[in-house]
């Protein structure tokens, strides 16, 4: 969708990029820029940079970049026009009318509206005569009416299309209900409800929007215990943490992580308002980054079976990567926090939290449980595995503390453990260095570059083109004096020509380009363009002289590329002519 330049500039002017980014990233000033931990990948050292001067952001770690619109798109799951509208609404700016309105795509706000109305419908059904079985179940689980209202818990009736009829009567279209994962189209073309005869837990994000449902079966014969909303224009399961909308305001710097909604709700009722859940799945990197914005410590309370242990180990790893400490709750023979509190009480659960196992001890115990420690050979294998784990710890103090624990587990002296850990650390460092060198070599040669596929055969030209584009993006006023010597046809590679063409009017008028302009560039392409801009902000030589030198160098590269292409074309033509003559000679011979 195309918006006017003036409208987009007003969007950027009135939505300060630092304010928008600060909602998701803790920023600190570093000279003339702001830095923080990247919200797009796991890191411990800040490499995510916001440039106030150009109102852009770029991560020097993962390469993600863009402007306030693209950041809003990435963090909110918006399309380009939806992100623009969201930012306009944020500052009370009336949307601009455009002729080329998007078609055949369900808007996020319509999905949220449909899901919100569905939540109201389900809650009314719970309190109606049809909801008696559901109310009995909730009473059996000891959930109070106050808790039920607080979480908006409802009942999806045992009917094929009751919700579908209600929502279509409210003006929602078939496409909207399908996109919201509320209804499906049957073989006869009619709609039927996805959630039926289930307790419906609304999935509410940190802004208070209802995005979907986690629905628990009432009929135990149903194969699926829970049915969760699949990804929609408003909901991404990998980014969502149930209960975070309440836990973030609880006033603690820790969270209790459960597997399902019921456990989190029960903990809230018992006074643990910092309980959250991951909807039955192991934690994801996106969830870990969301958690890192609200907590310093997470108490993991997953099941003790194999899947639960794997989820715990993955959670420890991902949380550690974003600087969040992980502790593990031992609930003994009970299967979940809800059952534990019912059996032993809230105070006993608080004691479990205080006595929780740190991630280091949990990992060493998990390794030891995989071996028969009474046998020397098995103990040696466990020792080797433990030392390999210790070598993955980032700090020397951490490794020494872990080494002491390993010595206790295996009956080995601290010096012997440290020697083994350091040896593995050295081997690991060599392997990582070799892999990084290989990746750098591949990158420098252009292999695997999906944004500019010409890099592998024209690396020098691409480097010069990116310098030129970076200068113009940073200082558009450099272009008018050089306009005669630099046009779209001056560029050797197709991608660079596309970028120049997109911002040509901005360069010609000497105004700041809108990086996410019209949503033309893909996220990967936009990140590459922002990287060009970021690289020029890090150097001082962005003068007319520097631009002229780059233009001259590009002219030489283009002449060389044109010459190589001509030679290749003539060679191919000569080869075709030679093959044609051979065929003609063969045919003549056969005719004789």
Give a written overview of the molecule.
The structure is a single chain. The protein has 592 residues and is an alpha+beta fold. The chain folds into 5 domains: 5-90, DNA Primase, Chain A (Alpha-Beta Complex); 108-234, DNA primase DNAg catalytic core, N-terminal domain; 244-364, Dna Topoisomerase Vi A Subunit, Chain: A, domain 2, CATH 3.40.1360.10; 372-445, no CATH class; 459-562. Helix content is 52%, strand content 10%. It contains 24 helices and 16 strands. The chain has helices at residues 5-14, 17-22, 68-76, 80-90, 108-126, 132-140, 145-151, 162-169, 174-179, 244-247, 261-269, 285-292, 306-321, 337-344, 346-354, 359-368, 376-390, 396-410, 414-445, 459-474, 479-482, 494-509, 523-537, 544-591; strands at 28-30, 33-36, 48-51, 56-59, 65-66, 154-156, 183-185, 191-193, 198-204, 210-217, 226-228, 254-258, 275-277, 297-300, 325-328, 357-358. The protein has a 5-stranded antiparallel beta sheet. It has a 5-stranded mixed beta sheet with strand order 13-12-14-15-16. A 4-stranded antiparallel beta sheet has the order 6-9-10-11, with helices on one face. Helix 3 (68-76) crosses helix 4, helix 16 packs antiparallel against helix 17 and helix 17 (376-390) crosses helix 19. The longest helix is centred in the last third of the chain and has 48 residues, at 544-591. The radius of gyration is 30 Å and the shape is globular. The termini are far apart. The mean pLDDT is 88.
